[in-house]
């Protein structure tokens, strides 16, 4: 096998050959910056997942290396991310005590299963299945999950104990425990929240106003969480706040992860599989959309199946090396890109940084207040809550808005699976509903032209003996009988019609149900003395119709253009209209609303 | 309320006012012929449903009267039909002993529920829901049900006992019981089968050859079942075959049905409801398609919601008057139509015929052999088994063929609900799959024209700087990301492109997912220096796009025609191509395959 073919499966081969010193310098610098961002994120997302913080660090070592070898994106940075951490927690919390040995083992199994699901999807080339997760459903899921995440982190900010899986239960539990608020914890958590929020909101412009370049200001802003952690750790250390009841991370093992197979329990596998599938899909969607955004900037290509393979590999390796389920992260990819990373080697180099962190820096984490990690999580997911999106989606199409709202309510008040399944079912049903009564227009000829337009929208001429109908939808089972009904209606109200020409420019598919309906329509039209014809049938639809008897039996003709049909069936009216003075503006009203080419 | 408005809800008002002596004569004659057909059918379908034969007679009295008052079809004849009888049996047999008092009560409740479901659907105007039962699924269901019906009736022909719900169980049970075959019963059943089959197959042409008019021959042929019953009853009576073990109908109460409410048992209601919904849907589909076929012949209109109301009323009245679930029947409607029925009064008059039959003729039914009723059922449903349809559907579109096959296998080897649900799910999934990777063509200009065609099918000219793409599918969630991916691919392979014009003539809908994808595409194209434009956007799609920010933000233009777009974006190539000599035949190759106007 030559290198080109091999490079399709091991994309790093395509850039490794051209790798030079300059790229190495860029990647090295980016890796350093990335490491500084990854330390607080890894600790925080492990805590969000209900796992010991070191697990987050472990999950930032081998997965980026696996991705660097297999991934088709040159920019995507892989590791623990908020949504996947939440999914992990919601899968495992009902079964085990968070942080317990069983819980940690189950998290590894979950990562293994997610990796397995991704690899299987990649091998079967069924990555396209994610397409069925509609945008409104995904976006509703992310907003609602982020709200759940924030609610679940409130307890660390307030220093209280809460429990519950749903938004309502968490809120109620939090309000009930409010009197127990631990004031020193609240002070640390609240200050961190404010600081991190202001840094994210105004850090870049503020630093730029102080004279830094925009790019440097942006990168420096990303160090805010690290700064917060540093100040927090020092405060705890010197003021002995942990002895006053401020929860801290505690002892972190100063050892690199040991490789081991997760304990394989078939019962547990069956229980975890649905969530593993969900983690795979959600992680995959997130990663691919981030990767595609960056790839477009450099006119590079992302192969979804290769991405599945790479993310699957990353999850397998995290399962074998004591980590947690991982995915591609947006913020870390931005940081890596803006810090000048040229290749996935930047991610792999940051893995070395994380390994060094574990070995040499982790004793410092002992005094890290959990409240600051919670503040980091809350500020990170705050931007993911987009209620304006719900409004915009509803305005654009209430069907999509309804699917989004149903997903959000389901996630918030039941659980994640209920939310997503409800949203998906609603998306599907409302789509079927929309296409079940398609736009069917009677069309007439625009005077002075060969064009045919809706008689309700334009001042057109209709033939007495030929009824022209345009259907703006593929013909398939949900609308097949509707078509029969509408045509019966139209024929009953046009008693002088002897021909009916169906303009098929909007028909992309005619399924077997619709074919039978066309046969029924033909037969019923015959009994009332009308002949059916088709015009402007698309190539693929025509190819398929030829495989049936319909074209031989329906007795009509198929015309390449609607004008040609009318010219043959009612030459006098058609020619007279064509020669008439135009009564319409030559460009349809749409143009007026549009601005000039920029 | 004036009569016109009232007539919308009581359609008989529209014909009752013009009713005259001539119509009455026609209707009276048709009613007589209809009654002669209905007697054997009613007895047979009651037996098929596992009910005493008199129930079938009862179900032929009041339901046609209710339909005559409420129905919008002037031809549809309502009463017991084979498929609905089978559904009744398959609902009740697992719960009660066929023919027992509980069984009969449950059948009444089932009719009441079906009627209720239809009325509710009519009031909510959700009759369109039947559209989701695709033709291949319905057709597969009918073929498989007919096979089940035939297998279940074999025991009456052979004079044996069999049991089982599935095709396999029935076959196995029949083969096991073959040695017990009762030869006198087999002789009667076999002879009837042969006679009825020959009468149906050759009766009409045979009688016509003897000098009868085709119409009279057709009507007379329909009397074959009655003749078979008469001969059978006389043979039993004079040869005392019943004492030799030939099963007969036995005592039939010589009384008109008494009105009573069915016993209302909530547990039973919950159990029967799914089948009641199925009976409603299947009965409704059957009736509407029969009614539409006849309405078209006279350019009359059928109102599906009014039909639901009428069929619902017919089922309620049958439940109150000791009948069984009813629906519109095809063969009886044909007979009624061919016998010259002018209005639904023919059906109502046949009800009087049936009532007279119950009172005066039913003692004669005592000696009717069940084997002949079974033969009548078998020959009636034989025409409903259409395996050729499966082959044709598969050839036309394997996706539809697969849905049909799945329905058939499900009905035959599991049960009716499994079959229909499997078929429906498969229809839906395969439709989504088909639309999830739409036909996307790069188009170029046909020399010497303003038309743009697929570069793979036609010898066209492409602009260097403008990439033209046509999508032949509505843009919605299953294909939104596919579009992103394909456009990324196409842009990567056309590095010189500065503009991309999306030709939207085949796009009937852009949902929120696709809108977000278009936004993502726009942004990614921008980062690689390409501007997106749209052309030939349909009115309704344009209306919807205006409700979003997209048109203001995407930076491109919307062109009324694709030619206009190219003329502005690459005037030199476009004008030169337009002025070039045509290299293509003026009419596309499709036309050659089509025959002349008949």
From TrEMBL, chains A, B:
Biological process annotations from GO: transmembrane transport
Lineage top rank: taxon: Bacteria
Residues in STAS domain copies: 456-569
UniProt name for this protein: Sulfate permease
Transmembrane parts of this sequence: 29-48, 54-70, 77-97, 103-121, 128-151, 181-199, 220-239, 272-296, 308-326, 346-365, 372-390, 402-432
GO CC term (a single one): membrane
Keywords from the named record: Membrane, Transmembrane, Transmembrane helix
Membrane disposition: Multi-pass membrane protein
Key word DNA-binding present: no
Predominant location category: membrane
Localization: Membrane
Keyword Transmembrane: yes
Protein's organism: Marinobacterium lacunae
Lineage: Bacteria, Pseudomonadati, Pseudomonadota, Gammaproteobacteria, Oceanospirillales
């Amino acid at each position: 096998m030559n290198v080109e073919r091999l490079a399709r499966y091991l994309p790093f081969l395509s850039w490794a050959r051209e790798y030079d010193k300059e790229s190495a310098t860029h990647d090295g610098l980016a890796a350093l910056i990335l490491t500084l961002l990854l330390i607080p994120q890894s600790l925080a997302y492990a805590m969000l997942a209900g796992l010991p913080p070191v697990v987050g660090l472990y999950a930032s070592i081998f997965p980026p290396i696996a991705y660097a070898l297999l991934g088709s994106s040159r920019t995507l940075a892989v590791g623990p991310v908020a949504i996947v951490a939440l999914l992990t927690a919601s899968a495992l919390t009902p079964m085990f005590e968070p942080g317990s040995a069983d819980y940690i083992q189950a998290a590894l199994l979950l990562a293994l299963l997610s990796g397995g699901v991704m690899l299987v999807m990649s091998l079967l080339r069924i990555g396209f299945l994610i397409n069925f997760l509609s945008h409104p459903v995904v976006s509703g899921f992310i907003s609602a999950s982020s709200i759940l995440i924030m609610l679940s982190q409130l307890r660390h900010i307030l220093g209280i104990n809460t429990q519950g899986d749903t938004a309502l239960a968490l809120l109620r539990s939090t309000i009930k425990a409010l009197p127990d608020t631990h004031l020193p914890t609240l002070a640390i958590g609240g200050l961190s929240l404010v600081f991190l929020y202001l840094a994210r909101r105004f850090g870049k412009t503020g630093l730029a106003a102080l004279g830094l370049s925009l790019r440097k200001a942006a990168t420096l802003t990303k160090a805010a969480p690290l700064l917060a952690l540093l100040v927090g750790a020092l405060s705890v250390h010197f003021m002995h706040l942990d002895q006053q009841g401020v929860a801290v991370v505690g002892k972190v093992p100063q050892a690199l992860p040991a490789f081991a197979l997760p304990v394989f329990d078939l019962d547990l596998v069956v229980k975890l599989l649905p969530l593993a599938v969900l983690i795979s899909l959600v992680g995959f969607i997130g990663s691919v959309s981030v990767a595609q955004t960056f790839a477009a900037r450099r006119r590079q290509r992302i192969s979804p199946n290769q991405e599945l393979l790479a993310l699957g590999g990353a999850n397998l390796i995290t399962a074998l090396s004591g980590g947690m389920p991982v995915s591609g992260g947006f913020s870390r990819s931005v940081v890596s890109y803006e810090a000048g990373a040229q290749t996935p080697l930047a991610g792999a180099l940051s893995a070395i940084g994380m390994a060094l962190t574990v070995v040499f820096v982790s004793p410092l984490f002992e005094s890290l207040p959990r409240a600051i990690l919670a503040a980091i999580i809350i500020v990170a997911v705050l931007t993911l809550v987009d209620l304006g999106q719900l409004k915009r989606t509803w305005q654009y199409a209430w069907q999509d808005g309804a699917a989004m709202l149903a997903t959000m309510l389901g996630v918030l008040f039941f659980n994640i699976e209920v939310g997503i399944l409800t949203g998906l079912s609603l998306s599907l049903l409302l789509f079927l509903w929309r296409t079940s009564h398609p736009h069917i227009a009677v069309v007439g000829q625009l005077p002075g032209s060969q064009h045919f337009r809706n008689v309700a929208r334009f001042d057109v001429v209709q033939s007495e003996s030929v009824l022209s109908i345009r259907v703006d939808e593929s013909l398939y089972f949900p609308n097949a009988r509707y078509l029969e009904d509408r045509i019966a209606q139209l024929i009953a109200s046009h008693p002088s019609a002897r021909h009916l020409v169906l303009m098929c420019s909007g028909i992309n598919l005619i399924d077997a149900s619709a074919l039978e309906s066309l046969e029924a329509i033909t037969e019923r039209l015959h009994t009332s003395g009308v002949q059916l014809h088709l015009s402007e049938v698309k190539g693929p639809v025509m190819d398929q119709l030829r495989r049936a008897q319909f074209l031989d039996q329906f007795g009509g003709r198929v015309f390449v253009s609607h004008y040609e049909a009318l010219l043959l069936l009612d030459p006098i009216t058609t020619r007279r209209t064509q020669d008439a003075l135009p009564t319409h503006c030559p460009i349809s009203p749409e143009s007026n609303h549009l601005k000039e080419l920029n």
